[in-house]
Design a protein that fits this description.
Length: 572
């Protein structure tokens, strides 16, 4: 009886242990985060053949791959649309499986102990030692008769790790902890950490992420139509017809031995043909189009879109956007299909602009990047809509002045009148109150050369509606009198000229000396041998004496208000 119970327990343990292993949780490193995983392209990196003691190496390798990936166009321009997560998957043993059974395998051993710890610059045809490590995903060389074809064998385990950690992944890259050249594509882009292997993963991402075809001849079994491979040379129906003649794009035959000339590609130097090449314009366009399909530029919006809103007062609407770098977005805000603002990430909306009942505030984004030429992509727009329900008619809100109802300016100076929280779509008209003269329109205007205090007011207009006026007083400060008497003293022995302002000293004022071009003249510091800003009143200026007459100017400055007088000319 006891033996039976023990047997049953062992069976239960035998059933339970694999499940526990499969549900194991690993630490996740966030290498790049732009926003909610629901809005971004989620690039997930998994490590195979890294032991617990090698996780620091894995962290470095995943960062190196991420940096390499985003140095390539168009990922560089659209990096703001990606999150990158590296899951620290742990293997029992280090490395990758290698039987050396492929016909192109170079037989022989390599003593890795004599190389630095992270040595990964072995050439493509270097001898790889036979190894059979126990790794989490079982990545192995020699698949499909090709030594360099490194493929993870435990796909169920990969699926389980992804499901447990980041189920909404977009693209997966598996880094295999082997210093020898190799990698593969398919559902997972796979790359060893050899210095030339990263390009394999990037090339394979072209297949899985953008559905690109190889631009080298891989065999009849792969000969299918694609955006970058076609059996037609007709310029009117060619998939890349919009790129013909641009940046080397044309119609090129595969040709060559075993490569039928009945198939054509768009470029002669593209990463889908040569790993060391950049992606051609046709392939870059497909990547951009795929990024847009798999992500949204709207990372976050306020207010949230879930509810129908009722506006009781002026309210702010904001966007947090993922943008290309450089930014090529053209953005427009529409209220009931009427454009009210362009190329800004937030606006204020006045309930007085809404009609009774249902209203709609919409934001549309169009990407004007030169990486897109196909009209199906060029004309594509992303948009969001806020639903607004207005229960009653509202007057337009009275504008608020940015700095209160009183401003000051120096005599003869200028001032800027500004509306606080200007509402998109409204027209703000400014008037001189005393005369009713219209002096300008806009959220802020300049008033210039003021010599007396004046009142101004502003009114907001929307179609046939207008707000009550908001008034602002611009006070003109007392005029600073310019210096009237300047004493000129010449020291012939030292060949110096001393200029002195002949006024009673007042700590409220100091003086600025200027040359004929209006550039300030600073004091010469004999001890340090340099010109320095004056620390005191600066009513005395000493200059080198010239053989010809010279001209300088002096201004009086009110330290409390920073207002300046007109210039007094001094000739000597």
């Amino acid at each position: 009886m006891n033996k039976s119970l023990i047997f049953i327990v062992l069976i239960l343990l035998g059933c339970w242990l694999p499940v526990a292993a499969q549900s194991q949780h690993f630490k996740i490193d966030t290498l790049l985060y732009q926003g909610s995983a629901n809005h971004m392209v989620n690039l997930v990196i998994l490590g195979d053949g890294y032991t617990k003691d090698q996780l620091e190496d894995y962290a470095g390798d995943s960062k190196q791959f991420t940096n390499y990936f985003f140095a390539i166009e168009p990922f560089k321009q659209y990096s703001n649309f990606f999150n990158v997560f590296a899951i620290q998957t742990v293997s029992e043993e280090s490395g990758a499986i290698h039987d050396c059974k492929a016909s192109d395998c170079v037989h022989g051993d390599t003593d890795l102990s004599k190389y630095p710890k992270r040595y990964n610059k072995f050439t493509r045809d270097h001898a790889v030692p036979i190894t059979h490590p126990n790794t989490i995903f079982g990545s192995s060389f020699d698949n499909g008769g090709l030594h360099r074809l490194v493929v993870p064998q435990k796909n169920d385990r990969i699926e389980e790790v992804l499901k447990t950690h980041i189920p909404n992944y977009t693209q997966v890259v598996i880094l295999v902890n082997s210093p020898f050249y190799g990698g593969s594509g398919g559902k997972w882009a796979t790359s060893t950490v050899n210095f030339k292997s990263n390009d394999i993963a990037v090339h394979e991402i072209g297949h899985s992420f953008a559905q690109l075809a190889d631009e080298y001849w891989a065999g009849n079994q792969y000969a299918i139509e694609s955006v970058n491979r076609s059996q037609t040379a007709d310029v009117n129906t060619l998939p890349w017809k919009y790129w013909l003649g641009k940046d080397g794009v044309g119609i090129y035959s595969y040709g060559g031995k075993g490569s039928p000339s009945t198939w054509f590609r768009p470029h002669e130097y593209c990463k889908m043909q040569y790993l060391v090449a950049p992606f051609c314009p046709v392939c870059q366009e497909q990547f951009v189009a795929s990024i847009k399909r798999k992500s949204s530029p709207f990372i976050a919006v306020k207010p949230v879109l879930n509810n129908v809103l009722t506006l009781d007062s002026v309210q702010k609407f904001t966007l947090r956007l993922a943008k290309p770098s450089p930014n090529t977005f053209k953005l427009v805000w529409l209220l009931n299909n009427e454009a009210i603002a362009h190329n800004i990430d937030s606006i204020y909306l006045d309930p007085g602009m809404l009609h009774n009942g249902a209203n709609e505030l919409k934001v549309c984004i169009q990407d004007t990047t030169g990486l897109l030429r196909n009209p199906n992509y060029v004309n594509l727009k992303d948009s969001i809509v806020w639903k607004l329900n207005q229960l009653q008619s509202n007057a337009l809100a009275k504008p608020t002045n940015r700095w209160g109802d009183t401003l000051e300016t120096c005599f003869g100076g200028d001032q800027v009148l500004t509306v606080k929280k200007p509402v998109a779509g409204l027209e703000y008209r400014w008037y001189e109150t005393a005369t009713g003269t219209h002096i300008g329109s806009g959220a802020n205007i300049f008033v210039r050369n003021l010599s007396v205090s004046k009142k101004y007011h502003v009114v907001a207009y929307w179609k046939d509606k207008y707000s009550t006026q908001a008034e602002i007083l611009v006070k003109t400060l007392m005029q600073v009198e310019k210096p009237k008497e300047i004493r000129i003293k010449i020291d012939k022995k030292k060949n110096k000229v001393q200029l002195t302002v002949q006024e009673k000293q007042n700590s409220r004022y100091n003086y600025i000396w200027l040359d004929e071009k209006g550039k300030p003249i600073y004091e010469w510091d004999e001890f340090n041998g340099e010109y320095v800003r004056p620390a005191g009143t600066n009513n005395i200026l000493v200059l080198d004496r010239s053989s010809t007459s010279r001209k300088v100017y002096v201004q009086k400055v009110d330290r409390e208000t920073t207002c300046k007088s007109d210039c007094t000319e001094v000739t000597f």
